[in-house]
Structures are given as structure tokens and as C-alpha cells.
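Quick start: read one record
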Amino acid sequence: MAKALDLDVDALLDLRLQAEQAQAGGEVGRPGPIAAVQPSAGEGSGQPGVLVGVPPLAASAFQPREGLRKRIDAARGGGAVVLTQTRRASAGVLSGMGGVGKSQLATQYAHQAVAAGTHLVVWVPAGESGQLITVYAQAALRVGAVGAAGEDPGQDARTFLEWLATTDRSWLVVLDDVRDPGAVGPWWPPARPGTGWTLATTRLHDPRLTGGGRTRIDVDVYTPAEAVHYLQERVTADGAGHLLDGREDDVARVLSYLPLALGHAAAYLLAEELTCAQYLERLGDQALRLEDVLPEWADAENYGRRVTAALLLSRAAAEAASPRGLALPVLQLTALLDPAGHPARLWGSRAVRSYLDGLNTDEDGQPVPVSDSQVRESLLALHRYALITHDARSTGQEVRIHALTARAVQEVTPPALQSRLAWIAADALFEIWPSGPSPDREVSAVLLANTVTLTRHPGHYLWDDQTHAVLFHAGRTMITSGQFQSALAYWQFLLTVTEDKRGSEHPDSLSARGTLASTHNLLGHYDKAQLLQEQVLADSIRMNGDDHADTHTARAHLAATYCHLGDYQTALRLEERVLAARVSSCGDKHPETHWARANLAVTYNQLGRYHDALPLCEQVLAARLRSDLHEEDPDTHLARSNLAATYRGLGRHNDALSLCKQVLAAYIRIHGDDHPDTYLARANLAGAHHHLGHHHAAALLEEQVLTGRVRLLGSDHPETHRARANLAVTYNELGRHQDALRLAEQVLEARIRLLGDDHPHTTRARDVLAATHLLLDTPNTQ
């Protein structure tokens, strides 16, 4: 295993200073100072093909990036060599984060211009104005500009600009790596549509770069297809196609399609004789730093910098440009969050502001509050230097960071500080999470993604000292939003880490285990849920006692699983015990007491005891309606749904229909049209229509339910088979017996396999299939 490099920010700044002193810190190996050369015979006489400066060699496996080139060509007029466009600029500025291939694109344009016979092509390392003046002065001599004498570089440079403004010869000037717009400002070549144009590259997002009619083109990372094609072409060209094992797309994705990183990775693959899968394993080893798996020696494309150095090169400049030195702490905190973005309002949270306020104190040692404008200026400074993206148009994900930038920042942030920042980030996420019965689903999804990113950190900081509440909140959000498969993986992970950190009998572990069991229930894994819930109940009895509130909660969850398994009598005994305990300990009007009543009523319904269920359902609904937010509370509509099922059992079908319509409308408003609970409400409404003889209406709803459940829950989920069973019955009512037969056969086979031969649902499926065969007048062999 390669030795991990102990790279810190100061070392990166030393690299930056060395690079600037050597004048070779650009994206593709940049030449050093260019001495002024007197024109040789013919060069100063106006003959075509003059090249000043040394454009880098074209990169291996260069990707043409046609979409970008079309935008660049459009910005300069749309011509192949000489542009003519009256309303568009003749100069373009390519901006983007380090390593996205800006200079490689510019290199291609320079080489193509030379090959096409452009009279003058000038390549200028534009990191500072001194270099620019030197190259301009040389160009003035090479083209024989009137007044250029080779004695005063500044005067000769100005003479060169005058020549560009008046010549009828074609020209291209490339300003590579503009770092100081103010210094370059007086030296921008004139816009000459139809004669010449200027192409500049920069890492800055500075409005001064788009003055003078210049158009900025944002250069992003490769597209997925370009990234994969680059890897394949680069490795194959070196005679190592055997290293391509079909995982190139995964390598490209993990490296976030960054050309700089992909160039290093390809060279590393070739040098180390690694397959893509082996490289991914090494890249995923958190004990290795980026400098180990994307090393300096792998810079085969002559980017001229290490990957980590490239990603952090602008940190000092951003720090200097931000108020009160806030750029670094803002960057460190952002690096722990989801690269895809987090809400800008996180920076106004109490948790974040308290941390930022504490970074500076007055003479009495009191924190100096940070203003909104100072935080915003810090974010914009990081954006200008391409360390983050701050885009107010991306609602909910205004602040983004490249995944490799995030990892590089984390690697130079001390673990103790990362732990503190992780808790601050978690506190802020929890603080701004939408609350109430009908939260903003899109915002919740973004916050959920950011929380999951925090949990994936190998330091597992959110379990330090205690388990952060946002971990459980995020998992419950996955469930309530219907993301059952994602929730299952999340709760399995959460349980594993919590047991490792807290022990298997810690209350947090019991809670995680219980919620994991409930998730199994939602996915139809009833046997797995039962095993986990019996373990939770036994642990709670041993740790808390037989009459503890948590013990009764465990009983209630286990009872629900027994209902799914068809053991209604066992479920009934548990639920009657839970209700008695809740009344005794919590009182008759406590929410937990109402939950116990609701669960018991559902079991009564399953047993056909509708008269026993009716008063419980009415009591629960009345309690829910007394809430101030009852019409936006899903629990209210669940109570209506349970009462509708009881009405249907009692033959009160019109009452059931009215309630089911209310529930479906509410669920569409609260959860959206494509949520598991919304499909359950459709199924219940279909049932009400069915009992009233509205079979066409029922069939339309049941077909929607089946399609939705297959997509959301899978083809073999118990609720999907329930949807098939209901639709089969309705098809029989409509005379579509062949369609019903196909569905009924699928349902019976699945229920025997999933629930066993004696489950009530299996018996019901067998009855439906038998009835279908009778209607078809065909023998039933099941």
C-alpha cells in the first residue's frame, strides 16, 4: 500500500507560490518567459502563419466536446477561421473550476488556427501582466508592427494592440489562465469580427471579464459519455485494453467526470497495471489520500499541478477576498455536505451562525456577530475562485461543491474540527427541516441527501458522545416519503453503526432495530419484521420492565406484524393489552391512547367485528378533528380511512364512499399523486365504488393502483398482489374473466409462496380463483 502523504494547506500554498514563481502553474504545462526575438526575413513582411508563444501539445485522447465548441464558435461568430457577427462578441472567456480542461480546449483552437493558415496565433500565459506585455512585445516585432523597436516592451505591446485593431490579416490571441482581471484589463485585444478574435481561460467568475462585449462560456466537467470515452481511448491507445473491465463508467462517476482527475487516473491505471475495479477499490480506501491515488507523477497530460493542489490552489485568494477570514470555515463546512447542493438558508441557521460568530471575539473576549452580507460575501468569494458554486437559481441547492474538492478539503481539515463541523451541519439541517403535517417534499429530499452524506463520512462523527437526532429524523422521512427500499438500507446501516458505537442494548439501538422491523413490514418482509420485533420486545422487557411505555410500543408494532401474518387473535390480545396500559398510564385522551384504539379497531375489522370497531374509529376521528391542523394531518385522514373500512363492513357504502373521496383528495394534496399512501387511498375508494356496483369506476382506480404499486413497491410485494386480487374481482364483475383468471392465478401462487397455505389471504385468493373458473366454466386444478 502506498504511503499516505501528509499534505496540509500551507504546503499547498507553497506549491502555489512555486508555481507562480516558475510561471508554470497552468492547466496544461505552460511555457516560461518568452524573450523578445527580432523578426527573421519574411516573418516581419506580413507572410501568413506567424506563431508567437508555445501552445502546449494536444492532450492524449482529447475529447472534442462538440457541445462546448458550438457555443464557443457561436460566441465568436460561427465561422471556421474568421468570424463575422454583428451582434455577438468576437471574444470569449472560458471559466470554470481547475482541471475541467479549459486550456486543453484553448490549445485545440490554437493548433487548428495554425493548421488553417491563420496569419498570427499568439499564446499568452496570462497569469500576470508582465508575461503578457513580454509576449505582446515579441508579437509586435514578429509581425513588423510600425513603431515596434524592441527597446521598450510596454510601448511595443501597445503598438501590437494598435496593429490588431487595424490589420486586415487574420489573428487569434489566447490568454491562458487570467488571474487578475484588473491587471489584464488594459491589455485586452480589440474585438475585430471578421478579422481576429480572443480566447481567454480563467478560473474566476468576475464580472470584469465579461466587459467590452466579451461572452463568458462556463466549462463544466466531461459529460458521462465523454469521460468514459476518454478512459477507454487513453488506455486502449497504450495497448492496455485488458484493464478495461466494464467499470469505466464507475471510475468516471466517482471522479465526478473531472478531466484533470481522469487524466491522472488513466496514467495511474497504466503505470500500476490496475483494472478499473481494482482502481476503484484503491480510490475508495479512505486511508489513502487523493495524492496517493491521483499522484503528481501521473500528470501525463501536462496539467502542471497535483490534483489536490489544483483543487485548493485558490483557497488563499478566496480567504483574502472574504470578510473576516470566513472563506476557509465556510469551505470546510460545505465540504462535509452533499456535493449536489444544500440550501443557502442553512447559512442563516442558529447552529451555523453561532459557530461563525465564535470565530472572532472583541477585546473582552465576546463573540463578534457575523452579518448576512459577510456570509454571502464569503460564499461569493469561494464561488469566484471556483471552490464552490453559488447559484441562487437552484432553489434548495444553491450551494454546491465538486466531490473531489470536498474530499481534498476534508483531507487537510483536522479530525477534531471535522467532528465539530459535522455536528454543526447536522444541527443546522435538523433546525431548517420543514415541520408540520405537510412539509415541503423537495426541500426535505435535499436535506435528506445532505444528512445521508454526513452519515457516510468514515469518521462517523454523528455518533460521537451521543447519536444525533437528525439521523433518526432522516430515516423516518424516508419512510413517510415512501422511499421504502432506501429506508431499508439506511436503517440497516444506522443499526450497524449504532450497535457498534452504543452496544446492542442501548435505547438508540432498540429504536433503530424497531424502525428497521417496521420498514421490513412496509416492504412485505413480515417474517423478518417478526424476528426483529420479538427481539426488541424481549430486550425492552429485560431493560425497561414489562409495563414500560417503550415495551408497550414494541408490543403494538409486533401486533401489527401478526396482523400481516394473518394471526389476528394474537394481534388482538396484544392490542387489547396495549390499549388498557395506555389508558392507565397516559389517560383517555393521549395521542398514544388514540393510536392504540386505532390499531385495535383495524384488528376488529380484520376479524369481522365491525360493531366493536365502530365506536373506536369514531372516537379516534373525533379526537383527530379537534386538532388545529387536522385537515393537513395525515393521521386525521388515516382515521377517516379506518372508519370508512368499518362502514363498508357494516354495509354503509355511501358513507364509506364519501370518506374515501375525502381521504384521496387529502393524500394527493399532502403526499402527491405517486405516494404509496395515495395508492392505498385509491384502492380504498375503488373498494367503495365496487360495493356500490360502480365497477367501471373501480376498475379504473384499481388499474392505477396496480401500476403504481409495481413501480414503487415491486411486482412481488404483498400490496401489489392485493391490488391484483382486487382487480381480478372487478374484472369478473365486468365479464372480463380471462383477464381475471390471469391475475387470480398470479395472486394465489404468490400468496402460497409468501404467506403460506393457511393464511386468510391465501384462502381468499383460492376462493377468487375458483369463482373465476366457474364463471369461465373451466376446471380448476389449483
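The chain is about 60% helix and 5% strand.
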